[in-house]
Each structure stands twice: as structure tokens, then as C-alpha cells.
Design a protein that fits this description.
Layout: H1 2-41, E1 51-56, E2 61-65, E3 77-81, E4 87-92, E5 99-102, H2 116-125, E6 156-157
Antiparallel strand pairs: 1-2, 1-6, 2-3, 3-4, 4-5
């Protein structure tokens, strides 16, 4: 009986360590997925001709890009950011089936972070600041993303931005 009790107590004591190990393992896997989709979506810049639309949501804001080499495909790669600029969710729809990378429950575990001024510039390029809900907000005065809307799932379209020809 003492051995059974000892084993039960040892297993109980190990649970927090196992939980932490699993959380960290999942965070590494998800961060790798997030980074891979981010690299594909922004291969020609955060603001590019492939930037297609935006979504202002209740817990994160998203930018959607057409896949590289397929300008006719809309909604291929979606990047969602927490208010502090951490990439917390990606959706890759380029193959016809959606593949997710996500850490929205624990955004502090997200390792990829984009400066707020770069993200605000991208949302402005996608037309987000013409949205009536952002009336009066000036992109250069924001210290975080304009999160907190109740239109879960609604996308707002904009025309793809043409990149200026460089020298």
C-alpha cells in the first residue's frame, strides 16, 4: 500500500513539470508554423502588392496576403497580431485546406514580434483607417493595434497595393 501511495504522489508531483514541458513543446511547434507562414506572406515586404485585406477583431487584428506567384488567389495567407505586435495566429489557405499556427490563448509565448509602427503602416496600406470604426484615429499616434471590435470573422477588402518601382 505504501508503494502505491508513493507512486501516486510522485506522479502527482510530476504533473506540473509535464504540463510545462508540453506547453513549451507546443509553443516551439506553433512558433515554427507562425514564422514559416510569416516568411511566405511577407517575402516581398509587410506592405506589398500582395497585401489584400484586413480584419479588425475582438482579440487580434489580421492582414491577408495572396500567395507568392498566384495573384488571383485571395485570402491565401493570413497573419493575426496581438495588440503589442506579436504574431499569434496564421492561416495558410493556399492549398485549399486551411492550416493553422496559433498561440492566441498565450500570446506571451509568441516569439515573432513586428514593430507597431510597421503594422499600423500595413493596416493603413490595406485601407483600415478608412474604416468608419477607426474614424478620428491617426495611424502615427497609435502605440498598439486598434483591437476590440465585435465583428468576428468579417473581412474588409481593399485593392492590392501596387509597389512603387525602385531604382
Amino acid at each position: 500500500m505504501a508503494i502505491v501511495l508513493f507512486v501516486a504522489l510522485a506522479m502527482l508531483a510530476a504533473l506540473p513539470f509535464i504540463g510545462r514541458w508540453e506547453r513549451n513543446r507546443n509553443a516551439r511547434t506553433q512558433n515554427a508554423r507562425l514564422a514559416a507562414v510569416f516568411r511566405r506572406a511577407t517575402s516581398d515586404g509587410l506592405v506589398s502588392h500582395r497585401l489584400w485585406r484586413y480584419r479588425l477583431d475582438w482579440s487580434f487584428d489580421c492582414l491577408t496576403y495572396t500567395p507568392q506567384g498566384d495573384p488571383s488567389a485571395t485570402g491565401g495567407l493570413e497573419l493575426c497580431f496581438a495588440p503589442d505586435g506579436r504574431l499569434i495566429e496564421t492561416i495558410d489557405r493556399s492549398s485549399g485546406t486551411a492550416h493553422f499556427g496559433e498561440l492566441p490563448e498565450q500570446p506571451s509565448l509568441a516569439s515573432l514580434r513586428v514593430p507597431i509602427h510597421d503594422l499600423v503602416r500595413a493596416f493603413a496600406a490595406a485601407g483600415a483607417f478608412h474604416d468608419p470604426r477607426l474614424q478620428g484615429l491617426k495611424p502615427d499616434s497609435l502605440s498598439g493595434l486598434p483591437i476590440g471590435f465585435d465583428d468576428i470573422g468579417a473581412f474588409h477588402y481593399s485593392k492590392p497595393k501596387q509597389r512603387a518601382a525602385g531604382p
